[in-house]
Structure formats: C-alpha cells, structure tokens
Amino acid sequence: MSRGDMSRGDMSDAPLTHVDDHGRARMVDVTGKAVTQRRALARCIVRTTDTAAKSLLADEDAVAFARAAGMLGANRAPELVPLCHPLPLDEVSIRVHVGQGSIEILAETAVVARTGVEIEALTACGITALNLVMVLLPHDPTARVDTLALWEKSGGRSGTWRRGEVPASEG
C-alpha cells in the first residue's frame, strides 16, 4: 500500500453517511462512485499472559483455525454489520504474530469495486482475535482484545489514509 496521508480533519468533519436527512439509517448509494482498487488494513492486539501466549505458539492449528475464521468473517461482514455493502473480495490476508504476553493480528482486504473494504478488514481482524481468545480463556480468563482499529485504507475518492502510528510488525 502507498504511504500517503490524509489529515484527520478531512474525514472527521464530514456528516455521517449512513444517516438520511431525517436521522434514519440508510445504506449509502454507491452507484455514482468510480470502480477502483480499494485496500484496507486493520490491526488489533490480544492481551494475555506470557504462558498462554507460549501455549498458543505450540498449537499451530489454533492459529490456522482463527485465521480461517477471520477470512470467513470478512466475507460475512454484510451479514454481521447492517448497511455494509456485499462485496466480492479479491483478497483477504491475515497475519498473526505471537509475542510476549500479546498477539498482534493484521488483516488486509482488497477489492476492485465502488466502495471500500474497511469493515471487512476490521471484521476479519476481530473474528480472528475472538477465536484466539476462545482458545486462550481456559489458560487465561483475563485474555482480551485491545485496540481494534483501521490502520490504512486506499482507493476511491478519498485516496489513501494511514493512521499516524506504525504497527509493531512494520516498524
């Protein structure tokens, strides 16, 4: 993805797009938008004990199943998130990095379409994290998901946007 940046003010001052003039929820009409390549990168951290993180390292199947669940979640985002456009995803990739007391999850989605894939990337990341927490809970009942957020997006009218921080695995 390119590393361009759009200032926070450019997007945060805009009115909500999923609310009509009467305050009712609505699906955004994207028929007038250009079809472009769109990408999104989401990130979250699962916090756990060092012992639980080490046990996850020893269980390759748990990570593989969590990644598969995250990919399924990305494709099911329109069923889980009302007003999310169904998209034929061209790519879903999920990276899981197990560290000391934490697990970093990076989910990237891509499509050539009229609307972005941010919700799909966030859903992939969150579902992967939830599956890992499920595996960790018997070892660590305090395991939790932290900082689920969009880190980068590109394509479409608003161009490229990147969060100010760099994910640990890129820095």
Helix content: 25-40%
Overall mean pLDDT stands at 88
Largest sheet: 5 strands, antiparallel
Strand order across the largest sheet: 2-3-1-4-5
Alpha-carbon Rg, integer: 17 Å
Multimerization state: single chain
Terminus-to-terminus distance: 15 Å
Total number of β-strand segments? Answer: 5
Report low-confidence residues grouped into runs of 5 or more.
1-10
Task: Please supply descriptive tags for the structure shown above.
five-stranded antiparallel β-sheet; 171 residues; alpha+beta; 30% helix; 5 helices; disordered N terminus
Write the layout of secondary structure elements.
Blueprint: H1 8-12, E1 36-47, H2 50-57, H3 60-75, H4 77-80, E2 91-98, E3 102-113, H5 118-136, E4 144-154, E5 161-162
Antiparallel strand pairs: 1-3, 1-4, 2-3, 4-5
Helix pairs in contact: 3-5
Written account of the structure:
The chain is of the alpha+beta class. The protein has helices spanning 8-12, 50-57, 60-75, 77-80, 118-136, and strands spanning 36-47, 91-98, 102-113, 144-154, 161-162. The model is unreliable at 1-10 (pLDDT under 50).
